[in-house]
Amino acid sequence: MPRIDGLTLAQKIKNEPEIGDTPLILLTSIRQQYLSGVEDSNTISAVLTKPIKHDELFDCLKNVLSKNERKIELSATIQEIGEPFQLEDFSKPKVRILAVEDNKVNQQVILGQLAHLGYQSDLATNGEEALLALEKNKYDVILMDCQMPVRDGYSTTAEIRRREQPGKHIPIIAMTAHALSGDREKCLAAGMDDYISKPIRQKALAELLARFTNNQTPGISDNNTKSSEQFNKTDYKDAENVKIVIQELAENDQNFANKLIRAYIFDTTERLAALAHAIESNDLEMIKNQGHSIKGSSVTLGAVTIASLGGELESITQSGSLQNAKILLESMNQEFSGLKIFLKSLLTS
Question: Residue 320's CB: how many other CB atoms inside 10 A?
Answer without folding.
Answer: 8
